From TrEMBL, chain A:
UniProt key word Iron: yes
Cofactor: Fe(2+); L-ascorbate
Annotated Pfam families: GBBH-like_N, TauD
Organism expressing this protein natively: Patella caerulea (Rayed Mediterranean limpet)
Classification via InterPro entries: AlphaKG_dependent_hydroxylases, GBBH-like_N, GBBH-like_N_sf, TauD-like_sf, TauD/TfdA-like
Protein name: Gamma-butyrobetaine dioxygenase
Domain of life, per lineage: Eukaryota
Domain Gamma-butyrobetaine hydroxylase-like N-terminal, first and last residues per copy: 29-68
Keyword Lyase among record annotations: no
Start and end residues of each TauD/TfdA-like domain: 140-387
Pathway(s) per entry: Amine and polyamine biosynthesis; carnitine biosynthesis
MF GO annotations: 2-oxoglutarate-dependent dioxygenase activity; metal ion binding
Automatic annotation (TrEMBL), chain B:
Cofactors (names): L-ascorbate; Fe(2+)
Pfam family, one: TauD
Family as reported in the entry's similarity comment: Belongs to the gamma-BBH/TMLD family.
GO biological process: carnitine biosynthetic process
Molecular-function GO term, any one: 2-oxoglutarate-dependent dioxygenase activity
Gamma-butyrobetaine hydroxylase-like N-terminal domain sequence ranges: 94-168
The protein's name in its UniProt record: Gamma-butyrobetaine dioxygenase
Region (Disordered): 26-51
Transmembrane segment boundaries: none
GO cellular component: a single term: mitochondrion
Length: 419, 486
């Protein structure tokens, strides 16, 4: 399986002891019960095992894609005839499907990682919760570390995954250098503002960010179905004579976690009533090339099946006209106002005045960012920004966690994933 | 100096005069538009009245409507589809907690005072050009917010005076905005119904010529409109050079990359990172459901498809239409597929042809997503990208039963589009609506080479709406499989 590249052992590094003690058919072959050497028991349905069979008829080499023809399997007549654990690390299975049989196998590491019976999914959902802290010191890493080794890259992404924010120090103050860093992870996630964007004061600015006014805490690009996962802001210039312009960050997931306990009714409202986010511009404006008409309605808070918060989308100055039933309008505004007040009053904010060479990187969907207004006094404040797609960030983090790190499952990162 | 710039300079001067009148004293203090007439403004703000507003209007040559256009917080084209936006009458109701508008066409709409307040279009409340609202909701005592005055003296503008605690705010909204965004009396449900996709049993693929798409806004609009309505469109006679497809997509947006790059080569390759890069058959699917936002538009440009190749025909089917029928025929299985999330995954820790970096993409999402009115907004479907189901044990067998039924419905669907691509053909389709697949092929020494790329769904929709409003008739577009609760 390893040679065919349908099994990457590193992928299951965090599975722990995946040795099978015993495997028994139960329920007339509808299920298999595995007793692991560590004492845990897991049950698997025959269809689940069949669909995930790793033999060469069932999984394509290299791509690992399943090619089991589900429509040809009579589900009512599928059951397990035999199991065999004589070869270590593999569960061999023989299925009866109608008048045919299929012999196949699954790696035990796969089974241990993906077991789902007896409340396991809810346990995994609980274990995926973000960890919060009241520490308001921004973690740091050196640019050279990130660029030169896999371990350095992993450290950076691991900090981003856990804490949601990380300052990368001493990035050469050359335009587009930011892309050299992001390219270690993925191609840049573009938006309507391009592959990179210049945060500096400009006339006819297409976005409030491209001015010198204050920006309240927000996450970028709430109008996109998939707002950026990682945001990187590289300070190219921040002249001493510029007054103001400090950056501030706050963990919206932490804020909402507290808000949920303090205002449960309002919390429910914000899960249920969708807000409108929009970016509209039909004329030329500095910072974007094409006209735009983005408008999306989405709940501010999304939950998974177990009621855990998986995603939050929050941007005060990107809101558009609320398009909900009239009975939801006032309750929404009441709840929304309360959330805004909670954000304003949040005591655990990160603050920093960026210096040239600083590149602040953060989970765009977890660490909201903002800045105070500034007066240039003839100086220049110029920050270059870029984004990394959330799926691609997570993919690289998991891969590194499994190859360089200890293989433990990562925490949530604000993605619309029901896990 | 252009007329436009001169007009803006004049506007800036008169705007700063106006702002004093419109701002409350607190807003003035913190406004980015501080003016030297601050003190005078403070005094006026406390006792602002309709007559003063009228007086200021008399001083200023442009109307409020025109001013909103100049400030770029109002793009009239945006509301082209609103119909007759003239207001017949407007009344405060519920002691100023709401406003009722009677439109000239007889319709009635109600708006809450907070809704109007949040969407006020005055210079203190909406930033020029970016249109971003700057109303600080935390400073408004919601229980004490009510409307004291409304004024219709100017056509197509609703002027409002709000009382918010001990302060007042004078502002305005365009009537076209109000007409477009009304929400009372079941309007949102009506709009949700109206956004439903149109289905057809026609299996002829609509066509447009490459030159049309590239040469004019109208041609571009035609292409995107067909994509929006029908979900697929053949662009004919695209020059068969590599990367030429990016010239076409660039009319809409930057390319939507994936782990396979900005473009991908669909041809038979050893050690293929994806089943597509082989000569095997591909069942109907949508690309990249492992991504939170799978591609919106997919474009496949046929560079070569030698005659001696046997097989390799392309096939397409409208999954939204299939599910619409499935819903009626198998309502319980439909519900299961809305409720039980499927796992999609793409894993590869070693080098493989077609992708540069290792991957571990894994997401759990429902196959079908509904909005608040039970309308299907998004579907995710890819038989060969499914991973290990991670759901409670009680959901496993019901899921597989429902999923098998859906797969059978897809396989048995009678309204499939089929084509054998010719060099120069570029088939473009809504990746999340028109599933695509191909028959297996044998190369016989020939080459079948398609180059593919994607456009992000939000950016496609944005350009389509913009063109619908500027080149087209402004009518609202239909859904396109986006996770939008609308």
């Amino acid at each position: 399986m390893v040679d065919r590249q349908v099994l990457f052992p590193a992928q299951f590094k965090g599975a722990g002891d995946d040795r099978i003690q015993k495997a028994n058919k139960i329920n007339g072959g509808q299920m298999v019960e595995i007793e692991w050497k560590d004492g845990i028991r897991s049950k698997f349905h025959s269809i689940w095992l069949r669909h995930n069979c790793h033999c060469s008829c069932c999984k394509l080499d290299v791509s690992g894609q399943p090619i089991v023809p589900l429509t040809e399997i009579p589900l009512e007549e599928l059951y397990i005839q035999d199991t065999d654990i004589s070869e270590e690390n593999v569960l061999k299975v023989k299925w009866q499907e109608g008048d045919k049989t299929h012999q196949g196998y699954l790696p035990s590491s796969y089974l241990k990682t993906y077991c789902y019976s007896d409340g396991e999914i809810e346990r995994k959902s609980n274990a995926a919760r973000m960890t919060f802290t009241t520490d308001s010191k921004i973690p740091e890493i050196e640019y050279k570390e990130v660029m030169e080794t896999q371990t350095g890259l992993y450290q950076w992404l691991s900090l981003l995954g856990d804490r949601g924010i990380c300052m990368v120090r001493n990035v050469p103050t050359v335009e587009d250098h930011i892309l050299k860093v992001s390219r270690r992870v993925a191609l840049p996630q573009h938006t309507v503002y391009g592959y990179t964007f210049d945060v500096k004061d400009r006339p006819n600015a297409s976005n409030a960010a491209f001015r010198s006014i204050a920006l309240n805490l927000h996450m970028d690009q709430a109008t996109y179905e998939s707002p950026p996962g990682i945001q990187m802001l590289h300070c190219l210039r921040f002249d001493d004579q510029v007054v103001g312009g400090e950056s501030v960050f706050a963990d919206i997931h932490h804020i909402v976690d507290v808000f949920r306990q303090e205002h449960p009714g309002e919390f429910k409202t914000l899960c249920r009533v969708p807000v409108t986010y929009e970016t509209i511009g039909y004329e030329d404006a500095a910072g974007r090339e094409l006209p735009v008409h983005f408008q999306i309605r989405r709940p501010i808070i999304s939950l998974n099946t177990y009621g855990h918060v998986i995603a939050i989308i929050y941007h005060e100055i990107m809101t558009g006209p609320l398009q909900v039933d009239e009975h939801d309008v006032e309750p929404f505004y009441k709840a929304y106002q309360m959330l805004m007040q909670a954000v304003r009053a949040w005591p655990n904010k990160f603050r920093v005045r960026l210096k040239p060479g600083d590149m602040i990187t953060f989970q765009n969907r977890r660490l909201m960012h903002g800045r105070s207004a500034y007066v240039s006094n003839g100086g220049l404040r110029h920050i270059q920004g870029s984004y990394i797609n959330i799926d691609e960030f997570r993919s690289m983090l998991i891969y590194l966690q499994n190859t360089v790190g200890d293989g433990s499952p990562i925490r949530r990162i604000g993605l619309l994933d029901m896990y | 100096m252009s007329t436009r710039i001169i007009r803006r300079l004049i506007l800036n001067v008169h705007q700063s005069n106006q702002r004093c009148i419109f701002m409350t004293s607190r807003q003035q203090k913190h406004s980015p538009y501080r003016t030297r007439t601050g003190d005078k403004g403070t005094k006026l703000a406390g006792s602002a009245s309709m007559s003063q507003m009228a007086a200021s209007k008399h001083e200023n040559p442009t109307s409020i409507h025109q001013e909103m256009v100049e400030r770029q917080v109002l793009y009239p084209a945006q509301f082209k589809g609103a119909g007759d936006v003239r207001i017949q009458q407007v009344n405060k109701i519920n002691e100023g907690k709401m406003v009722e508008i009677i439109w000239k066409d007889g319709k009635r709409s109600k708006f809450h005072s907070i809704w109007l307040r949040h969407n006020c279009h005055c210079p203190c409340c909406k930033i020029d050009v970016s249109c971003q609202p700057t109303v600080d909701l935390t400073e408004i005592p919601l229980d004490e917010l009510h409307i004291t005055d409304i004024d219709l003296t100017e056509e197509n503008v609703l002027k409002v005076v709000w009382k918010e605690g001990d302060k007042t705010h004078q502002g305005y909204l365009p009537s076209s905005y109000l007409k477009t965004y009304c929400y009372s009396d079941g309007e949102i449900e009506r709009k949700s119904n109206a956004a439903r996709m149109n289905f057809t049993t026609d299996t002829k693929i609509p066509e447009i010529d490459y030159k049309e798409v590239m040469a004019t806004e109208t041609g571009l609009y035609q292409w995107l409109r067909i994509l929006g309505d029908r979900g697929l469109c053949m662009v004919k006679n695209v020059p068969t050079e590599e990367d030429h497809l990016l010239k076409v997509s660039r009319r809409v947006a930057l390319p939507h990359h994936t782990i396979y790059g900005d473009t991908f080569a669909v041809k038979d390759q050893p050690k293929a990172s994806n089943a597509a890069y082989r000569n095997i058959a591909l069942n109907l699917h949508m690309d990249q459901p492992t991504y939170e936002s799978p591609p919106g538009i997919q474009m496949l440009h046929c560079l070569r498809f030698d005659d001696r190749i046997v097989g390799g025909d392309s096939v397409f089917a409208d999954i939204h239409h299939i599910v619409d029928v499935f819903r009626q025929e198998h309502p319980d299985e439909f519900k299961t597929l809305c409720r039980v999330p499927v796992t999609f995954e793409t894993l590869g820790y070693e080098d493989a042809a077609g992708r540069e970096l290792p991957v571990h993409l894994q997401i759990r999402r429902p196959s079908i997503s509904l909005n608040n009115y039970g309308d299907v907004v998004a579907i995710a479907y890819h038989e060969q990208i499914t991973g290990p189901l991670q759901v409670d044990e009680n959901d496993v067998e019901p899921f597989y039963k429902a999923y098998q039924k859906l797969i059978q419905a897809v396989h048995a669907w009678p309204y499939k589009y089929r084509t054998r691509l010719q060099p120069g053909d570029m088939i473009t389709f809504q990746n999340r609506r028109a599933l695509h697949g191909r028959a297996a092929y044998v190369s016989n020494g020939g080459l079948r080479h398609l180059q593919g790329t994607y456009i992000n769904i939000d950016e496609f929709r944005s350009m389509l709406i913009y063109l619908q409003n500027t080149v087209g008739d402004g009518s609202p577009i239909k859904r396109m499989g986006l996770l939008d609760m609308y």
